[in-house]
Amino acid sequence: MSKAKLLFDLIMYVNAKRQFTAQDVAYEFNVSLRTAHRYLSEIEGLGVPLYTEPGRNGGFRLLNNRVLPPILFNENEAFSIFFAFQSQKYYHSLPFDIDMTSVSNKLYSNLPLDTRKKIDRLDEVLAFWNQKRSVPSHYLKEIIETAIEKQVVQIEYMSKSGNSLREVAPIGIYAYDGFWYMPAFDIANTKVKLFRTDRIIKLKRLERIYSPNMTLNEWLLSHTEQEPKVPIRLYVELTKEGLRQCRSIPWLEPHAVMKNQNQGYIDTVIDQTEIEFVSHYFFQLGTEAKVIEPQEIVSRICELSQKLLNHYTVNNQTDSAR
């Protein structure tokens, strides 16, 4: 057996055993005790995190951050990894950002020169653009770990009404529009709530287990496909520009219909609780959209317009008086 093959097999052996002695290694690989010590020293130099336990019954123990055995990638596989890295580039916070940098560097340094040149060009020709948010999310890795372990956590959460302490069981995290979100079962309210992770000020693991009996994918599907509790018809006439803008919004895109070359419309159903949000959206579209119904949204847009008009009228009168 070649030395390279032996070291490869030794890495897999220590990953599986977790705790062992040099004598165990000598017996397993049919080498002397001295050679076993030398090989263990060599794989430690390669980055395998071994901890020596002194004493009569001591030996070696592998730390929690195990090193996986070497894996060979072809060029397309290497490109797919860097392709995935590009999708996270515009996020201020990542769950495993340090590890991602380390993986990228290790993989890049072992690629042929011509492949490295192609990877270097990826930044120039490929981007998964998201608006880059400046507010960091500090607990992404912890949320993922607690979701996997079905562990309850206590969070201090910042909202409009002020900071509050909550006990929740995270279902997972997902990224959208530059932010990270955590759906979690709120223990006190006995229902799943959605939290922005950058608004979590503190997170503390509790010695309790709770299983929401729902995966992240199941929650996402149920959340996006749920029927309005109090359905209200939304009908909006759109200019060509209004149609273009509405088609760039995920919740409106499926309902934005082109009537002719210069006009379109939206005909869908919303929940009554969404009236304020929808009113503000179509208010900022100005004359590119005209809400026909419901009347509640028409009235609210008129109120917002009058408030804006009053704001500028007062400002102009103040400026004239100076």
How would you summarize the topology of this molecule?
Layout: H1 3-17, E1 19-20, H2 22-29, H3 33-45, E2 50-53, E3 59-62, H4 75-86, H5 97-109, H6 113-125, H7 140-148, E4 151-159, E5 162-170, E6 174-176, E7 179-186, E8 191-196, E9 200-209, H8 216-225, E10 231-239, H9 240-246, E11 256-260, E12 263-271, H10 275-284, E13 289-293, H11 295-321
Antiparallel strand pairs: 1-3, 2-3, 4-5, 4-9, 5-7, 6-7, 7-8, 10-12, 10-13, 11-12
Helix pairs in contact: 2-3, 4-6, 10-11
Summary, kept brief:
The chain is an alpha+beta fold and 322 residues long. It is built from 11 helices and 13 strands.
Structure explained in plain terms:
There is one protein chain. About 45% of the residues lie in helices and about 25% in strands. The strands form 3 sheets. Strands 4, 5, 6, 7, 8 and 9 form a 6-stranded antiparallel β-sheet that branches. Strands 11-12-10-13 form a 4-stranded antiparallel β-sheet. The protein is built from 11 helices and 13 strands. β11 and β12 (about 265-270) form a beta hairpin. By secondary structure, it is of the alpha+beta class. α4 packs parallel to α6 (about 115-125). The protein has helices at about 5-15, 20-30, 35-45, 75-85, 95-110, 115-125, 140-150, 215-225, 240-245, 275-285, 295-320; strands at about 20, 50-55, 60, 150-160, 160-170, 175, 180-185, 190-195, 200-210, 230-240, 255-260, 265-270, 290-295. The radius of gyration is 29 Å and the shape is elongated.
